[in-house]
Write a structure and sequence with these properties.
- The protein is α+β, with helices and mostly antiparallel strands.
- It has helices at about 10-35, 40-65, 65-70, 75-100, 105, 110-120, 120-140, 145-150, 165-175, 175-200, 205-210, 210-220, 235-270, 275-280, 290-295, 375-385, 385-395; strands at about 300-305, 310, 320-325, 330-335, 335-340, 345, 360-365, 365-375.
- Helix 10 packs antiparallel against helix 13 (about 235-270) and helix 16 packs across helix 17 (about 385-395).
- It is extended.
Length: about 400
Amino acid sequence: MRREAGAGVPAQSNHSDRTDASVSLRQWAYTLLEEGQLEGALSRVIDAVLIALIVANVAAVGLETVPGIYTRFHAPLVVFERLSIAAYTIEYAVRIWSSVEDPRIAALGPLRGRIAFALRPMMLIDLMAFLPAYFTVIIPIDTRVLRIFRLFRLVKLARYSPALPALLGVLYAERSALFASMILTLSVMCVSAELMYLVEGSVQPKTLGSLPAAMYWAITTLTTVGYGDITPVTPLGRLIAGTTMVIGLLLFALPIGIISNGFVTDLHRRQFAITWSMLKRQPLFADFDIGSISEILDTMSSKLVREHAQVILAGQSANTLYLIATGQARLEHDGGEYDLGPGDVFGEEALQVRGNYERTVTARTEMRLILVPGEDLRRLARKFPMLKRRLSHEVPW
């Protein structure tokens, strides 16, 4: 039954519109800032500005230590520092405000969720980038100490490096092997130090007359740094030193190999290969012949999407068709919410020139997606009418 408009309805509708606009703005801010999920010119510009600001701040910290530059450009440097603090503060506040768009944060409630979000490592780094500057207003702090905290801003670059989380994940995954490698290195260091102490301790009591001094020699030798401040003088001592150097080369190659292998394996997992058989199994391309599948395959690329990431956002420019290879997603639009799984397609709006996505799709689990650029999709739709009919059947627009 349609409700007739009354005197109180417009105000209620205006309040609802304001609420929807606030939620939409918060969602847009979250997808824009949290790891650049919202692709487009604005996202790239904001990322470039934030990265340039971080690099400029680190450069300013170094230039301030040059007496001539500090004396001549003290006032501009102070203004730049205050503008940077304001920018970092606003960025931090927007991230906290929009964090409830993450389903994991929203499940904890507005307050508890935002507190949990603020305690994440990257958010703590963001806080340390500007919070000490406010303390100087209340508590006098040596500028040299403050400069150390300003260098925390360099760590913020980790947000804009997709490979860094992968590397940290590899370090965590291979922690047992790396720990075993470290134990082996420490054992060799202790044995080498003990042998050198026994052989050279009585000959060079000032430099190798104690086990800690011999350990210092063992560390510099194992790492092949070789400062030359402590050198063996006996034939047996030189033999021990040569053996330690060779073992050091082998030991330090071990963790490098472990990390490299894990990193390459993880990259292969993230950038999976799209094969002909994989494409043939997709319902969208059923009954296509080998030649057609091969031509379609040439236009495709792959992408791994993390859990709870928003793949597309309603109103965003539609320039890509997405096909789910593995994983689960949630599709949201005015008519309700739907679950998507392997074989499902979304982003059919890319068939339209200068079209916009009509729905928001969020990854419920880690997903492997097959992507077709909108320009290639329109060309394929003209060449293969069956493909266009199937896409049109998916979402009637």
